[in-house]
Amino acid sequence: MSPDTIATIKATVPVLQAHGEQLTRLFYQRMFENNPEVKVFFNQAHQHAGSQQKALAGAICAYAENIDNPAALAATVELIAQKHASLGIKPKHYPIVGNNLLAAIKELLGDAATDDIINAWAEAYQVLADIFIEREAEIYRSHEQHYGWQGFKAFKVVKREDNSQIISSFYLQPADAQPLKAHQPGQYITVRVPASDKHEPMRNYSLSNKPGDDFYRISVKRETARQDDAPHGVVSNFLHDEINAGDTIWVGPPCGEFTIRTPAGKPMVMIAGGVGITPLLSMLHASLDTEDTSPVTLIQAAINGDALAFSEEIAELKETYANFDWHIRYSEPTDNDRYLGRFHSEGLIDEDLLATVDKSADFYLCGPAEMMQHCHQLLRQAGVKSEQIHLEAFGPALQLAS
């Protein structure tokens, strides 16, 4: 980008900081009206909650702030590129986003939207789009080379099981009987299902099984609306209500950058909240099934025993591996939980619980946004470096304080 473009983009940062979410609301409104064909790529529950608009506003502002230092955004670019590749975003989609974004900037700024500002943002957007297009092309090629397909492929549901009152697992094998290549523990696949409005919505679900199995396993929480006027989870409810052993669904290759980065000889601590156990369970299997005997700790938070998923599977790992420690924390244990002694402590995850783990470890977090933000803050206050903390957000990326 030219120096003038960089200077102009930098000058818009205060406006983005003050009105970023207003801009992204205008952007999504315009895009869904002008190009309804792209609506299938977006989770409308996140749109309704405003989390997608907030996440995009943060990303745009971060790009403007670091317009002269793009290396600072490398991790965010990889996260978004992986998500785009999982959904099948292609180069043809970028002009749609660019045109609607520039129109939203013009609408927001009104008379202040000079030609210099619009031209600068057009140039900046194209530079960013080219970065994504190039990286996503690499991901698509790697899917073809490693997994044997890109896009969506038919998979048979060979087994279904209930893991808690609200989580069910679906075991998937390719309909063409081709062998599966091992995924990286922590990655997700994309599931596409038919819907009543003739669209085929897509959602990402973490793989919860051990890499190298002859099946993929996704473990899906039934998502229900938290407000009367909000939608239920379209895909999760479809899977729970309509899909059983013998049925066919369409699946994309494994994606995601939330994978094990811990070298041999270093301890690991995993903190799971609710259905956030799913990618961590795959990591747990992978990290324990090695010659490395470094300590591995799982802190698993749940409301109560009825909501605790995979307890039998994890208990078997606890019996098998001497280097594995498992701590259950219930926020609202039932009398039956207390009677059976099925938990180690009660309450929310706090500094006293985290004081029991090795602060030199690498930490992997997955769960509700509030829980991860809380745990991230506690770990940083305890002296854990930010580069030791890795997390996965189910939905729009989290904005965390350093």
Describe the structure.
The chain is 42% helix and 17% strand. By secondary structure, it is an alpha/beta fold. It folds into three domains: 3-147, Globin-like, CATH 1.10.490.10; 153-251, Translation factors (Elongation Factor Tu (Ef-tu), domain 3), CATH 2.40.30.10; 268-392, Rossmann fold (3-Layer(aba) Sandwich), CATH 3.40.50. The chain has a six-stranded antiparallel sheet, covered by helices on one side. The protein is globular and about 70 Å long. The two termini are 29 Å apart. The model has no long low-confidence stretch (mean pLDDT 90).
Question: Features of this protein?
Answer:
402 residues, alpha/beta, Globin-like, Elongation Factor Tu (Ef-tu), domain 3, Rossmann fold, 3 domains, 6-stranded antiparallel β-sheet, 6-stranded parallel β-sheet, 12 strands
Question: In summary, what is this structure?
Answer:
Helix 1 packs across helix 7 (115-147). With 402 residues, the protein is α/β, with parallel strands linked by helices. It contains 13 helices and twelve strands.
